[in-house]
Amino acid sequence: MATDKIRVSTYIDQKLKELAQIAATYHSRSLSNYIEHLIKQDVARAVRDNEIENE
């Protein structure tokens, strides 16, 4: 399956990862999709609050 998405690697605390996985499962999302969803929400908020420009 082809995708236009890129891979991003990061380090997080093990307990945070475990809790994020539980939250993702609760929302019927993969962990990757859940994290992408959270980033999209925060970027939209930052644009709305004029913290960043959406070009």
Q: How many DSSP H or I helices?
A: 2
Unreliable runs: none
Largest sheet geometry:
none
Helical residue percent? 55-70%
- What's the helix-strand series? HH
Radius of gyration: 14 Å
Structural class: mainly alpha
Distance between the termini: 29 Å
Bin the strand percentage: under 5%
Compact overview of the structure:
By secondary structure, the chain is an all-alpha fold.
Q: Which helices and strands, and how do they pair?
A:
Blueprint: H1 14-26, H2 31-48
Please characterize this protein's 3D structure.
With 55 residues, this protein is mostly helical. It has a domain at 14-48. The chain is built from 2 helices and no strands. Helix 1 (14-26) crosses helix 2. The longest helix has 18 residues, at 31-48. The radius of gyration is 14 Å and the shape is globular. The N and C termini lie far apart (29 Å). The relative contact order is 0.09.
Notable features of this structure?
55 residues, mainly alpha, single chain, 56% helix
